[in-house]
DUF2325 domain-containing protein (Desulfuribacillus stibiiarsenatis), 525 residues
Amino acid sequence: MDNTFAKDILEFYGVTPVAYVDCPECGGVHEISLEKTPEKLPISSLPWVLFFKDLYILPGLVCCGKNMYPTHIRIKHTAVISKELEDELFADHQSYHIGTLKVPVITNEPLGYPITRSYLEQIDIQKQLDQQNRLLARKQQEFYETCYTYFSIHFEEIIQEIDGTEIVDVFHTIAETPFGIHIKETKYPKNKKDKKARLNWVKKQIRSIIEHEGEEGTRVVYYLIVKYFVEWELIQGIYYLHWNVPKYQKMIGKKLLLYMILQFPLTSYFSYLREEALSKLIQSKGSHRKKSEVVDIVQKNLDKANETIEKMKHTILRQKESIILFENKVKELESKNDAITKQLQAREEQGTDAAQTRKIKELKGIIDELRADLVPLRELKEDVVRKMEEDSEKELLDTLDEKVRELDILGSTIESNEEILRGKTIGVFGDIQFSQDDLDTGEAPFRILNSISVQDIEGLSLMKKSDVLVVLTQHISHNCMWTIKAHASSRSVPVLFTRHTNLKIIVNQAAKIVKLQQSRENISK
């Protein structure tokens, strides 16, 4: 998951902060758009105000012969994603009081604001924030994956603790995605005033999405809950130098919050945020433990949780090996059964061979038993693919080499790429920024779409609607490769693993993959 969303929330939504003040003499309202501070932060540009993650120059205003500074900030928008978002976040009546915890003033002069920072304090904080952002850039992928594993294992407990408002927001968002198609066919509880019944119904629908969509559905729910919370609360709170633990616990529940705070990457400078948060989460009334003691207690619990997760990984690996052994044995016995059946069919005119017939019955009995054992294991196989965090790139590349050899054999068949790919959507997945000109196929009867991963709604949506899946193995995470591979296998969608980023080569290889699958389907018929 990239961190673009966190870098500049206001620019992301196309909005501008405007500072204003009411003149105490005439009652007139004076407002002015805020400008960001110069990049090098010269002391001569003081005073400043911190708003979200950016520093702005705090301008002075004059009215009725008196100098004054703004008291509030409100947001004006130039482009809004949706009316609901506008009403919730950027409505005209929504204002932010300057000189508070979330909107501190940076000044070396007393200006009458309750909460201020000096110039040197803010410069030091900016340096520490740069280090924190670099650490988060390196560790955020690992953090999100670790939290996803915990989330998927403890989903039922977590979903019970999440605040009603939060889960309803998640539900409405999912309902507008391809994962929410079947939700629209359901109906709300008849008594709309019964909030508890409505909340239970919403949580039931969230569970049904995960049951229908498996890991893809789980990741969408996780993304909407955790990514939003991290970007808008945890990361934003670092800039405020404060984590509002009671608010966070109400939002996502104690269980998930505790695990996320323990795992969240923090530099030593900001580690006090973790200690204070854990102290508030763990300390009971009348308890006077030191914060360090609380951290030690929670760390032991975390170690136990991680140990349980590791054991589950090993169990999944063993089950995967068992599945492979059973499937190979079934194939071997089915092959023997087919050979004997053909021999008997050739001898039908000479009468039935009782011994061979008995042998076939014995083999069929063994096969039926193995198939019965294989049913739960095959169901578990999908779970293995979903929950495997430790995957092997070599296995994927070996599969790629095998497919390339098959494609070389198939290459002798002359057929136009355009005819093979007619009407199809080719989904290319990898962290490569193709230009619109690159993706434009002109008059070709197929189209090419691109996404950097499958860990967001756009990527998952593209994966579901693609007729051919292309994985750029050198520019995508292992987890994404496994997710795409599992999706392709379960839905018989042709998938190409390639090191190439040249779209002409990719289209050529994709056509061969499609042709190969068509040939196999014709043979099986």
